[in-house]
Fold this protein.
Amino acid sequence: MIFRGYVKVVNKDTTAPVIFFNRYSGEIESESIYGGKWLRWAYDRPLGRFVLGAVIKRKCFSCLYGRWADTRMSRKEIKPFIEKFKVDPNEFLDEPDSYRSFNEFFYRKLKASARPVCQGQHTVAFPADGRHLVIENLGRDSWIFAKGRRLNLDQLLGNSDLAGKYHGGTAIVSRLCPSDYHRFHFPLAGVSDEGRLIQGSLYSVNPIALSRNLAWLWENKRQVTTVSQSPVGDYLFLEIGATNVGSIVGTHPGNQRAEKGDEKGYFRFGGSMVILIFQAGRIRPAEDLLTNSRSERETYARMGDRAGEVMTPVP
């Protein structure tokens, strides 16, 4: 079973910029990639690809990097990072100088006013900050991230019966960059199960990497959670690990009800991805998200903003 969808990517020319539509500025912008030169070297050069397969994709590499990000020495990176990527300290729940390590800054909490959650029981919220892509009509003839790159839903979910339940449905892919707020939240009220962890490698989820080999996405470490008793019935919430992500940390206990906007968990250091998967006919994506996705382009929006509407409420 294959996803259908599109995003503006770097195909063979990995020196070209990764672009997206910014919902707030109304402009098409170029992404400032953390470690962009290193990323292109690792995924586009013969020596880089050798190092990628031998070292970078392995859990031990990301764990070592994560350990550095937990040290007090790493604090010196916080101020330059804020300045380079124009992160707004006024949104932080705590003062920038209070973080004991870069990792504490990375999975920082924000003031509630910084991420208001869209109102209405039948309005779907984005689960995280990031660059978002909607994938329509999950089916066998679909592709994502680049023409000819097909995403296998059976393999992504690790369960063909579960994948069959979402055939013809809709997915929202939220790609988080290192500069984004890295806590993720429920897009609708519901009851989550305890989740199922699928172990795997830790490849990058940047389009530069995924346009080379989409299979890296379902080879990565990931958590699959079913959320039930929501306005759309059951839907899936996936967290995808990536290079230099120390871990996926759950903060909401399983088998308990969550309200829309409640925190589900966070990623430790690194870029990462969240995927929401809905059954057929259950949601209508926001118009700008839909239009940009059909134009092979991601849409930047913040956690809590409107991602779409429930089409067929389930009692």
